[in-house]
Amino acid sequence: MIRHTVSFSLKHPKGSPEEEEFLNATLILKDIPGVQHFERLIQTSKKNKYHYGLSMEFSDRKAYDHYNSHPIHTTFLQRYWIPWVADFLETDYEPFHQ
C-alpha cells in the first residue's frame, strides 16, 4: 500500500472563486482507476504553513505509477496545479515493516 499525500497553498485567497474552482477540480482525481480513500483536507495546525491537503491510497506501486501518468492527472497538473499552487510538500508513505 502507498499513501500519497500533498500539502499545499494556493496563489488565490481563501474564499475566492478560484479557490472553490480549484478544490472542486481536485475531485476528478478520485475517478482515476486505482485511487482509494481519496480525501480533501483543510489544515488546522498553526505549525504548518500550508492551507490544504489531499490524501489517497494505492494498493501497490503499479497503481500509483498508473495514477501519475494517467491523462486525468496530467491534465489536472497542467490546468490547475502548476499555475494555481503557490507551494507544496508531497509525501508518499508505505507501511514500515521491521
Give the helix/strand layout.
Elements: E1 2-10, H1 17-25, E2 36-42, E3 52-58, H2 61-69, H3 71-84, E4 85-93
Antiparallel strand pairs: 1-3, 1-4, 2-3
Written description of the protein model:
- The protein has 98 residues and is of the alpha+beta class.
- The chain has a single domain, classed as Alpha-Beta Plaits (2-Layer Sandwich).
- Helices cover 33% and strands 33% of the residues.
- It has three helices and four strands, in the order βαββααβ.
- A four-stranded antiparallel β-sheet has the order 2-3-1-4.
- The longest helix has 14 residues.
- It is globular, with a radius of gyration of 14 Å.
- The two termini are 16 Å apart.
- The mean pLDDT is 95.
Uncertain segments are none
- End-to-end Cα distance: 16 Å
Q: What's the alpha carbon Rg, rounded to whole Å?
A: 14 Å
Assigned CATH architecture? 2-Layer Sandwich
What's a quick, concise take on this entry?
It contains three helices and four strands. The protein is of the alpha+beta class. The mean pLDDT is 95.
Question: What are the salient characteristics of this protein?
Answer:
33% strand, alpha+beta, single chain, 3 helices, four-stranded antiparallel sheet, 98 residues, 33% helix, Alpha-Beta Plaits
